[in-house]
Design goal:
alpha+beta, three-stranded antiparallel beta sheet, about 120 residues
Amino acid sequence: MKLYSTDHEWIEVVDGIATVGITQHAQDQLGDIVYVELPEIGRSVTQGESVATVESTKSVSDIYSPAAGEVTEINDSPVADPSQLNSDPEGAAWLYRLSGVSDADLEGLMDAAAYETFCN
């Protein structure tokens, strides 16, 4: 199940590995994304820390980690082709993966229904 932050990132934990990306709402607000910078593998991040950057034709935005953990993998695909974030931000264009995510960090996040209410 995906969970959502108030900063418009999503996180989904499967078998102890968390996948993180930006929400469709964030992409809609940003417009056409033209550049993506991701964290280094092995980096330890804290919840709420700026860990990545996306640049659109409108602005540059920080991506904040919805949970603490260690970056175990990055998705090179949207780095090579940022337009993927425009078409599939909550699917194939995920940004990075974390290990060591605590349940306590996840408890403060929203489910899909709460996030939809938050955005409207």
